[in-house]
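User: Please run a holo structure prediction.
Assistant: Happy to. Please share the sequence and the ligand.
User: Here you go; the ligand is zinc ion.
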Amino acid sequence: MDKPSREAVAGAMDAAVKWVRECRSLCVLTGAGVSAESGVPTFRGPEGLWKRRDPVSLATPEAFAEDPKEVWEWYQWRRRKIRGCAPNAGHRALAAVEAVKPDFLLVTQNVDGLHRAAGSRRLAEIHGNIWTVRCVGCGAERYEQGDFTDLPPRCGACGGLLRPGVVWFGEMLPREASGEAMEMLSRCEVLIVAGTSAVVAPASGYAAMAKRRGARVIEVNPDETPVSGICDATFRGKSGEVLPALLG
Ligand code: NAD
Ligand code: ZN
């Protein structure tokens, strides 16, 4: 496709700003791209690789059952990287907009905690959070920001293996967060989809769900994705630049 002219982009931005400003009910879905400008490694691409291994093969219950130490080494590496990252202008714009919308939900696939760090509170973390750990034995869950000295870490109460509190490929989403997301998708007037490749189910289907009901769908992503075709407006830029303009 030809690149749209500067005038066309400006016109689309004016229209999208108006949809966002005038709607009562706004939903935003974010993915790893929103944290890219903060320096959080994505899964796909060379900076996301660890010991040249494909992270997608490590983020599975099978990998954990087979070699919990290796999976934990990777998570410890990720946790260290994320610890040094701060929210960017995109996170901040999303945190600010929730104060002015009567009905708002930020649905994120990110596990890095940067939305919360930016001040977002009306937040559904549908893939969990890398700073929580859960016991495979007794189910106890807690927040843990520090490093573990012995890997894999074990539960103080029952001795069971601790696992990262994130959703792995092939696992169910946490019921409460995914329920909130589904409810919002069934009523929002506008959905902004930012920084997600829209290939990981079920979030990959959220844009189509909202669109079928008549919501306006706006995409923010430097690249085309499988949902681009159904969007009412697409902005091919970085979320740290486009989101402040869109939500300003
Ligand atoms: P993805 O890595 O599959 O896709 C990232 C998308 O962001 C791409 O489409 C890319 O074009 C876009 N992008 C890159 N830079 C951008 C920028 N500056 N602004 C806007 N968009 C940009 O990520 P996904 O769709 O979230 O799916 C990957 C899965 O892996 C998620 O489910 C998530 O749980 C997990 N994950 C999470 C994190 C995190 O917490 N930050 C990081 C990597 C992976
Ligand atoms: Zn336990």
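The first strand starts at residue 25 and ends at 30.
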